[in-house]
Design brief:
With 217 residues, this protein is α/β, with parallel strands linked by helices. It has nine helices and seven strands; from the N terminus they run H-H-H-E-H-E-H-E-H-H-E-E-H-E-H-E. The chain has one domain (23-208): Beta Polymerase, domain 2. The relative contact order is 0.15.
């Protein structure tokens, strides 16, 4: 028999009450996506960044990482929307892998995006060129920004947002949104990213003590 799902009432999210986050483990994915979209559109620093990225016409551009899932955690735990958010990460994919091309795009972005929180813009087509020097292991070239999201050290963190020309919000979450809404940080063993998972999890546990940290397998 298939489990019956009941969408959580909107007042639960709006008031930021933390009741029993484990209930989200069985919530339907469409309900979680709808709530993430509602939160995104109601949060100026997120929706304004998405609109600016769309206006720039960045290829295969996604707003990713902490600005997305941290916003959900803050809503669930009743904290201010900006709590724990240091910056906003944007992925894009440009086949021109020269440093000069990316630097020109970063300089252009600095004139477009609001300075607070700062926007970090990175061409995912170039990651394999610097990854080994930075992290000490090889990294196969990516074919898209989505592939970069797939390789995040934590499945929980693998989520991206994109605003389309007709104002639809695209949500890319290859592992679903259940972990985010359950306040659970789950590792992604696709790559040997134990150190990154543990470092990020430790910082996030300090900022959101309610989090459940799943150990690296």
């Amino acid at each position: 028999m298939q489990p019956r799902f009941t969408r959580l009432p909107a007042w639960f999210f709006r008031r930021g009450h933390l009741l029993n986050p484990h209930r989200f483990a069985t919530a339907p994915e469409p309900a979680l996506r709808a709530e993430l979209e509602r939160l995104t559109r109601a949060t100026p620093f997120l929706i304004d960044t998405l609109r600016a990225a769309r206006a720039m016409g960045l290829p295969d551009c996604w707003l990713v990482s902490g600005a997305v899932y941290n916003r959900v955690w803050n809503a669930l735990t009743g904290r201010p929307a900006r709590h724990g958010i240091k910056d906003i990460d944007l992925f894009y994919f440009d086949p021109d892998t020269s440093w000069e091309a990316e630097d020109r795009m970063i300089a252009r972005a600095a004139r477009v995006f609001a300075p607070d929180p700062p926007v970090e813009l990175r061409n995912q087509a170039r990651v394999h060129l610097w990854y080994e020097d930075h992290f000490g292991q090889s990294y196969a070239p990516l074919g898209s920004s989505r592939e970069g999201i797939d390789r995040f050290a934590c499945k929980t963190h693998a989520v991206g947002l994109q605003l389309t020309a007709d104002d639809r919000l695209e949500i890319y979450a290859p592992f679903g949104l259940g972990d985010i809404f359950s306040l659970r940080v789950t590792p992604n063993p696709l790559l040997d990213n134990r150190a990154t998972h543990e470092r990020k999890a430790a910082r996030q546990k300090r900022l959101w003590p309610e989090l459940e940290i799943v150990p690296w397998p």
